[in-house]
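Annotated sample (chain length 228).
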Amino acid sequence: MGKETILVVEDETDILELVRYNLAKDGYRVVEATSGEEALRLAMSAPPHLVVLDLMLPELDGLEVCRRLKNDPRTKHVPIIMLTAKGEEADIVAGLELGADDYIPKPFSVRVFIARVRAVLRRGPRETPSESEAISIHELVIHPGRHEVLVDGKRTPLTSTEFRLLHMLARRPGWVYTRGQIVDSTRGVNYPVTERAVDVQVAGLRKKLGTAGNYIETVHGVGYKFRE
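Output written by the structure step:
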């Protein structure tokens, strides 16, 4: 393991200690904050490699902390994993819309938690391909300029909406997109379409891609992501 710094923001002492102990055991340097204000101060003064952020914080909640971190040029590229209580589906969606990278519902398995931390850090600060750059991932090649998708070297005809959807997901493998984000990206902001329509669109895209369609994974209650 490297010596990445992880800022853990959690006001429950037992959970904070559990997270701190296991991250330190895995070789990470851990910085702790028990409030949103303290988290922002620490993150702005010395941006960490990752923030593990509880959403249920006193006064300044986790969603507002996430929003401020993602809106500040000093911390906008720092990945965030949200810790959420069971039943906070709306907050999960809101956090992902604000730019959070992943979420872990409480109670959680320590092994799963560490695996998710490793996965987010592995993605690291790599740059997202530009809108015009060709993407080669798994057996897929996506050419934005040609509006063309090749699966195992064979051209696969897609509608314009299907192409935009695939391109959006494939540009950031592992990143979870909500259905609202997908609609805004593929159809335009405030386009009148239901979440069910997004699911139908994804189903059609998967079918056209054949076995490669399995790389588009459903994140239940939230949206979709492209497998890394």
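Annotation: The chain has eight helices and twelve strands.
Annotation: The CA atoms of residues 70 and 76 lie 4 Å apart.
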